Amino acid sequence: LAGFLWFQGWNDYCDDWTYHDRRKPGGYDSYSRLLERFIRDVRKDLSSPRLPFVIGVMGVGGPKEDSRPPMSYFRQAQTAPASLPEFQGNVAVVPTAPFWDDLLDELHRRKDAAEQKAEQQVKAALQTHPNLTPAEREALREKTIAESFTPEELKRLRGISHWDCHYHGAAKIVAPIGKAFAEAMVSLLKR
Q1: CB atoms inside a 10 Å sphere around CB 77
Q2: Cis check: omega of the bond before 70, within 30 degrees of 0
Q3: Rounded distance, CA 167 to CA 161, Å?
Q4: 48's torsion region: left (phi>0), alpha (psi -120 to 50) or beta?
Q5: What is the pTM of this model?
Q6: Could you tell me the pLDDT band of residue 173, with boundaries at 50, 70 and 90?
Q7: What backbone phi and psi angles, to 5 degrees, belong to 165?
Q8: 38: which residues sit within 8 A by CB, 6+ positions away?
């Protein structure tokens, strides 16, 4: 095993049961402590006391979230373990916010709204034409959605597959993040 990558956090970020002070400075301090312990435990269990460890810092929402609680506090908590003396030179953090695509995120939100509008139009059409076939209903949905976007926007929308917490499943976002992780790991391995 050459190294370990940790890229996780959405459910912790949203968890106001565990992190009830998450909207306050220090609200995620226990996440930092648990991450520190996790690194130590992984290294101990694998008998690799200086195993290179890369922490992917959540980037959902992009750089504009760097100053907005609670995201700003969560990102600080993910970054904190790397500053400990025992982790100097063997733990790296990679901010993923710079890879966020605001335009793609906006298109996804508009698509959600267009899909709701399309459902309303199908329901209205069924009031006057109750015998619409499933194919006709789907055609009406697709037409309504397509009318909400330019052809270029529709093309970009084909490149996403999931929620923002999964970076929209967009290779345009995730591929550069993976490259940054690999570069950070290579840097640690060279040390």
Answers
A1: 27
A2: yes
A3: 9
A4: beta
A5: 0.86
A6: very high
A7: -65, -15
A8: 6
Contact, 39 vs 93, CB < 8 A? no
User: What mean pLDDT is reported for the chain?
Assistant: 94
C-alpha span between 157 and 170 (Å, rounded)? 9
User: How many whole angstroms from its chain centre is CA 104?
Assistant: 13
The pair of structure tokens assigned to 28 is 């995620």
- Best CA proximity match to 39, nearest among 77, 14, 13, 4: 4
Higher pLDDT, 16 or 38: 38
**Which residues, in sequence order, are bridge partners of residue 180?**
none
Q: What is the pLDDT of residues 83-121, one digit of tens each?
A: 999 999 999 999 999 999 999 999 999 998 999 999 999
| Residues 9, 70: Cα–Cα separation, whole Å | 13
Cα-based distances in Å from 180 to 54, 55, 92, 95 = 10, 11, 11, 9
Q: Provide the terminal-to-terminal Cα distance of the chain, rounded to the nearest Å.
A: 16
Task: For residue 162, give the DSSP letter.
Answer: S
Tokens in use for 7?
């890229």
Distance CA 104, CA 11 (A): 22
Both tokens of 30, joined, read 């226990």
pLDDT digits (tens, 9 = 90+) for 143-166: 998 999 999 998 888 878 878 888
